[in-house]
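Dear all,

This email documents one entry for the complex benchmark we are building for the journal club exercise. For each entry we list the sequence lines for every component of the assembly. Then comes the predicted three-dimensional structure of the complex as a token string, followed by one or two observations. Please use this as the template for your own entries, and keep the labels exactly as they appear.
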Amino acid sequence: MHARAVAALATALAAVAALLLPVSGARAVDAQRPQPVVVAHRGASSHAPENTLPAVDKAAALGFSWVENDVQRTKDGELVVVHDATLKRTTNVERLFPGRAPWNVKDFTAAEIARLDAGSWFSLAFTGTRVPTLDQYMRRLEHNHEKLLLEIKNPELYPGIEVQILKVLANDGWLDQRHLASRLIVQSFSADSVRTVHALKPAVRTALLGRPDTADLHRYAAFVDLINPSYRSLSAAYVAAVRAHRGPHGAPMGVFAWTVDDAAGARTVAGYGVDGIITNKPEVVRAALTTV
Ligand code: G3P
Ligand code: CA
């Protein structure tokens, strides 16, 4: 074929390919690549009160093995699973302890928190549900054969919480090779906290929440295996930039995107090549990925 004809054909094919690409800029989902894992955010938090034992039971019942949670510390040093720095939104603390505003987690003892109802704000069907301790939570996950993306929440409020978390995980049998290889990732918005976890126990897989500049990724690669950004800040190029670095365990760094609650968003980030999708609606994401 004449060289000019070849060039014209190539241009035409490129134009057709461009038309077939999704408008978001995502590349088509790679059939060779494993589907992203679906992580039930704060447990199955659309079905049961977030960060509670019923929420992880429900995730397991729906067939989702990965759950995400948030860990903080009480006044007397117990680790508890709760998202906000205060107990106001997700418990009846205001009614039980009216004079204790602003109801910070760190200002209440474990015994006081154990009295709170962490279910009825969500639905009366969950009245009597408690704020779990991390120990109770880990035992339930083990019973359910689940996997955990554990977030150290507000670590600046709780000096030394990383050592304590690792102690609970060790006591509950979550730091053996089997759990470390496939059932546990520790993440935080605080790079210092994640760095501390890595220094204390290098075998633990870790993730940094947020979206650092690509120019800085090589520095995080020394102590994090994953970069977990808001899905709104993501692009295929960013995922590729993360994957170009190898994490502390020798594998290319991964990406879990949060918090994706609709089918279109799930397909878009899957097209970017993410390794995991953190969602309040895991069944919506699963359906979206299986019908791509
Ligand atoms: O796992 C990601 C996500 O949980 C981070 O945000 O506020 O829901 O803890 P947040
Ligand atoms: Ca979280």
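Observations: Residues 108 and 156 are 17 Å apart (CA to CA). The first helix runs from residue 3 to 20.
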